[in-house]
Amino acid sequence: xxxxxxxxxxxxxxxxxxxxxxxxxxxxxxxFNNVKTDATDxxxxxxxxxxxxxxxxxxxxxxxxxxxxxxxx
Length: 73
What we know:
Pfam families: DUF1659. This protein is of the alpha+beta class.
């Protein structure tokens, strides 16, 4: 039995520095939906760094979150 995978949804997630509370770093997230599933990692990172420049908090991480549908062929 062969399994086919189909990318259904891609989300760009920015993790921002929200300061320190009780000695632990706080992280604030911003997500952007409806990202093209065929967007390259380089282009997503470039967009993320541009968007981070518009934020009050510093950028910590850039994440690509994907949902994939697995079906039997």
